[in-house]
Design goal:
The chain is an alpha/beta fold. 39% of the residues lie in helices and 19% in strands.
């Protein structure tokens, strides 16, 4: 049995794509006879507060599904203040250093990036000729931060670029969640060994049933993080509600603004349902017609995991984010795409969708495409060859 360590900033009971991806990776490796351990912060995302069961603890170690999980102290925050966010990353980095000094580290280590500073801490202090460091790159920072308006091209940005390059250089192997990520890495280190590792879901898709409840309107649903990058608040402001209703599940920085908007305009067919578990979400999503996946701006390297999850549920997708995600939705006929940032065009696309188009047959076809092309276990088996 081969030992393998995964270092990540997100892990269940936290929610979100990053948490789900790392959990399924760890669980998949454990089922394939790897002895898996995980280092992660005390759970705090997306609330920015340590979860109740872990408050007052500096470290918590548990064995869950035969996976050893070490949860380390972090200064938790969701503040927009860059200094406080930096303190949060530094605090977890110090906890990692403390762990590295007093614990035996396996020869194979998978490091999640971003956050860049956390990945740098791991790559710098664990680098050695007889240890294989694998970098799992899910987003391209600092490029993504620049496109989101979080960074400017100054000294700090150039420093982050150097950290990014150091992380790539020290990695013996790099997993990338998109072709754009791998293209970017290859442009810096042409000979670096890379593997495309999509964020495919690992769950048994429920049976699709005909939905007879209808008021004639297309029921549009958004489920996920209500952050700045997703731009759900602007989406609520910009949609033409003549033939649709919008249902929202999730939590995040824009939650209060969205709830205030709904309160100010009670006649708008916008319904906020809050955050629910992933298992429950899969059940409730089946009652909707179309799932919308928006990004406020096109982000190079980003491919939202929702594409693969919704497709496996047989839920038609309206993609509004551009880039590689748009290409995937078009290539596999998973639904509709609208030009990123063009809300007039988005409303035009929505107006072209009617209830008759969203048939049981269409949903079954989308589900079949997902099962054939987005298979988590086949992807993981191919990945293990490189470990």
């Amino acid at each position: 049995m081969k030992d393998i360590l995964i270092i990540t900033s997100y892990f269940p009971p936290e929610i979100g794509a990053a948490s789900n991806r790392i959990f399924h990776l760890a669980e998949g490796l454990q089922k394939r006879d790897y002895k898996v351990s995980v280092i992660t912060p005390l759970p705090n995302y997306p609330t920015g507060k340590i979860f109740e069961d872990y408050k007052g603890k500096f470290k918590h170690t548990s064995i869950e599904n035969n996976i050893t999980i070490h949860r380390l102290w972090i200064y938790a925050t969701i503040s927009k203040n860059k200094f406080l966010r930096l303190i949060a990353m530094v605090s977890y980095s110090f906890s990692l250093l403390w762990f590295f000094m007093f614990n035996k580290i396996p020869k194979t280590v998978i490091v999640q990036s971003p956050p860049l500073l956390v990945a740098f801490t791991s790559m710098f202090f664990l680098r050695s000729k007889n240890r294989k460091l694998i970098l799992n790159v899910s987003d391209l920072w600092p490029i993504a931060g620049l496109e989101l308006g979080a960074f400017k091209k100054n000294f700090s940005y150039r420093l982050l670029e150097k950290i990014e390059r150091f992380n790539y250089k020290k990695a013996g192997l790099i997993f990338g969640q998109s072709e754009e990520i791998l293209t970017h890495i290859k442009s810096i280190f042409p000979n670096k060994e890379t593997v495309l590792y999509r964020n495919f879901p690992d769950f048994c898709a429920p049976e699709i049933k005909a939905n007879n409840k209808t008021n004639g309107k297309v029921k549009l649903v958004y489920a996920g993080l209500l952050g700045i990058a997703q731009g759900v608040y602007k989406l609520c402001e910009s949609l033409d509600y003549g033939a649709i209703e919008l249902h929202i599940y999730g939590s995040g920085a824009e939650q209060k603004k969205i709830k205030a908007l709904i309160k100010s305009y009670p006649n708008l067919p916008i319904f906020f349902h809050g955050r629910i578990s992933r298992e429950e979400l899969h059940k409730v999503l089946m009652q909707y017609d179309v799932a919308i996946i928006p990004l406020l701006n096109r982000i190079y390297g980003s491919v939202p995991s929702k594409i693969f999850e919704y497709a496996k549920l047989g839920l038609p997708i309206l993609y509004f984010g551009g880039g590689e995600g748009e290409n995937i939705v078009s290539k596999y006929n998973l639904g509709w795409v609208a030009k990123a940032g063009d809300y007039d065009f988005l409303n035009l696309v929505i107006s072209s969708i009617n209830k008759d188009m969203i048939s049981l047959k269409l949903k079954e076809e989308i589900k079949a495409i997902a099962i054939k092309n987005f298979d988590f276990n086949k992807q993981l088996d191919a990945l293990i060859i490189n470990l």
